[in-house]
Write a structure and sequence with these properties.
Elements: H1 14-65, H2 67-76, H3 79-83, H4 95-116, H5 122-153, H6 164-178, H7 181-184, H8 192-195
Length: 197
């Protein structure tokens, strides 16, 4: 605190106002620094999640384009697939075909888990795989229902959850496809500069 004759002209409590002003200034500076640190922390967390999500999505998209799942998608569109008895579920097909269908359903079910728990964002999934999911679910639904019925008869603890995340993925993609383009691809807002997309 400054000392000397200049303080003699002011009331005795003037130095308290000076100190109070310094405390307020320090508080404001600290608050600004804390806010900037928090925003940068949130941004870094977002970028880290985006990086992880991107790696997962690239791996999933690569697997989806692979020969095995491409063969499975082709098979569920074939006349041969339509000829099988869906009442017995997956068991109504030869083992090789059953494994193709099962692997495709499991892939979409696993993808649904990642979307449900927000490991990956629905938008790129809907954009890249949306048509395949929307096409596959109605074709596989009779098999899913038959498998669920079979699990009820077998006394499974929770038979209704078989392919539950595949169904969830179908519903989310269906919802996102009905939204207008402005909601699927939102405009950048001022806070996107700091927090990211």
């Amino acid at each position: 605190m400054p000392s000397g004759p200049q303080w003699g002209r002011f009331p005795a409590y003037a130095h308290l106002w000076y100190l109070f002003g310094m405390v307020i200034a320090a508080f404001v500076v600290s608050l600004v620094a804390l806010s900037v640190s928090a925003l940068m922390g949130i941004r870094n967390l977002r970028m880290s999640q985006l990086s992880t999500s991107t790696k997962v999505l690239v791996d999933l998209f690569t697997e989806h384009r692979g020969k095995r799942l491409a063969d499975a998608r082709e098979f569920i569109h074939s006349e041969e697939f339509k000829s099988y008895d869906y009442k017995s579920g997956l068991k109504g097909m030869p083992e090789e075909k059953m494994l193709l269908v099962r692997d495709l359903a499991w892939f979409y079910d696993n993808l649904g888990v990642l979307v449900a728990y927000r490991v990956v964002d629905i938008r790129p999934v809907a954009g890249y795989l949306g048509g395949s999911v929307l096409d596959a679910w109605p074709r596989l639904l009779p098999i899913v229902k038959a498998e669920r019925r079979g699990r009820v008869k077998a006394g499974c603890s929770d038979p209704g959850i078989w392919q539950n995340y595949f169904e969830y993925l179908y519903e989310r993609i269906h919802e996102s496809r009905t939204l207008d383009a402005a909601r699927i691809h939102p405009q950048r807002r001022w806070y996107h500069v700091i927090l990211g997309p």
